[in-house]
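QA checklist item 7 of 12: single-chain prediction sanity check.
[x] sequence parsed
[x] length recorded as 374
[x] structure emitted
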Amino acid sequence: MTDIAFVRSEMTAAQPAPRSNAGVAAWLRRNLFANATDTVLTILAVVFLLWIIPGLYGFLIGRAVPPGGTVEQCRVENVGACWAYVASEIEFFIYGFYPMAEYWRPNLVFALLALLGAPLLIPHAPLKVINAVLFFVVFPIASVVLLAGGMFGLRYVPTEQWGGLLVTLIISVVGISCALPIGILLALGRQSKLPVIKSLSVCFIELVRAVPLITVLFMASIMLPLFMPQGTTVDKLLRALVGVTLFASAYMAEVVRGGMQAIGRGQYEAAQALGLGYWRRMGLVVLPQALKHVIPGIVGTFISLFKDTSLVYIVGMKDLLEAVKTKNDAIEWAAPTQAVTGYIFAAAVFWIFCFSMSRYARFWERRLDTGHKR
């Protein structure tokens, strides 16, 4: 006998269509107005932006003196940012006291940095090995020859005349390029089974991480010449490079070691089972996985290194921030908003570089996140 108790005898009333999960309205509902708390925070954020944006717009654009303006315009009461001051001193902010007639030399270095560095950052760029050799071997030598001169008919320019963004980029590029490999070696040394290597690595890492960067720069400035032959002088820029690189290397070592500890013991044992030696085991199996897990920490260390370049004034170098500070005291451009405009310009430059590194790190995180892709 057929049971017809659950057979529908009447049509169900029509229901409204489900909410769309796409479009602007759905995005706003999902991200800004999902619940009462999100709604209140969104409203407060909008009120804050409505309060602060008009003032920022008025100072940065509305009442600002554009490039090409005069110092008299910057001295008007209630004036905004003095961009004419930044445009007038932009060469000093970039090159420092570098001779004006030789600006083509740092410009050529900047061009080579972009030309050789960009292909290394692009995943599918061809000729990676040749590009790496050119960037890490040929480019440093060519940069020293071009910037310092004293050979091939180039005028000698001492590093005391270098400054501005030029010094900031030199210290950052050298520090970033050297801190990662040195940090990896220190991390491997700290996990070594050889007592001497492990003890030396631990002592170096803990000693450097226990003191501020200013102390390390002082040590590089005062102590480093003591280890050189008598009568030998160590360039100020070289001292800053050594101090910043060693400081960043100690922090990088701990970041890398954290990634290595996150790798399961089975990976080490599998590599050993394949008959791989220590260096091939680390280079082909362990480190690729470890570095992928600690990309945020690595880039965070790079960003900190880039911002810490402003401390090299301790050893007498004029980086970007120190160059801006020097020109902020210039009497010829004395105005109510002169200093503020200079610092805003320096902050914008630092933000552009740091934000670019952050976004590039996010790109690699998404690209290497193969374990969670559908």
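[x] summary fact logged: The mean pLDDT is 86.
[ ] second reviewer sign-off
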